[in-house]
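Hi all, long-time lurker, first post. I run a small reading group and we've been trying to get comfortable going from sequence to structure in the token notation. Rather than ask abstract questions, I figured I'd post a concrete chain and ask someone more experienced to write out its structure so we can walk through it together at our next meeting. Sequence below, copied exactly:
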Amino acid sequence: MHLIVGLGNPGEKYAKNRHNIGFMVVDRLIDRLSPTPQSKSSFKGELYKAGEILLLKPLTFMNLSGESVAAVKNFYKIENEHIIVIHDDLDLGLGAVRIKRGGSHGGHNGLKSIDAHIGADYIRVRFGIGRPEHKSQVISYVLSDFTPKELECIGPRIETAAEAALELIRKPLEEVRSRFSRKPLSCD
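-- Answer (accepted) --
Happy to help. Here is the structure in token form:
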């Protein structure tokens, strides 16, 4: 069993936020795989199952994502090496895609929560959202919506991240990393 987690915040208000890119990628996988919803309130999230693949969108809000991930991990007895977390990354330019196992949470509150609940040794699909000019703008920046032009521009990269997550289930990390890593886009 493999668990693919997309990080974001629940609700229409946040649907197009930069911080919700993980939800956007999982939504693409849901469209593609037509999984069966799994209902259990203790999961604290929307969980879907397609064969041996679980797709999770935690509904705890970003800062508590680890509660949802841990609940699903423990219920299905999934090893960390079979958990793939898709998240936004301020340190990567818009649309860049990078893949790694473990590492620092880099100040990302969703990753910080997951690390606290299950440890840091899981696979991460990092999706670049760029960085605001000033550090004081980070919170408002990650909670701001992508512009319509940016959404159109990153559409193919959302597909790339979704495909990478599926390939991580079937192929070695290094092979997937070399095939699916992408440089930032210019959406001007």
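A couple of things your group might point at:
The helical segments are 21-33, 65-76, 109-118, 138-142, 148-170, 173-180.
The chain has one domain: 2-180.
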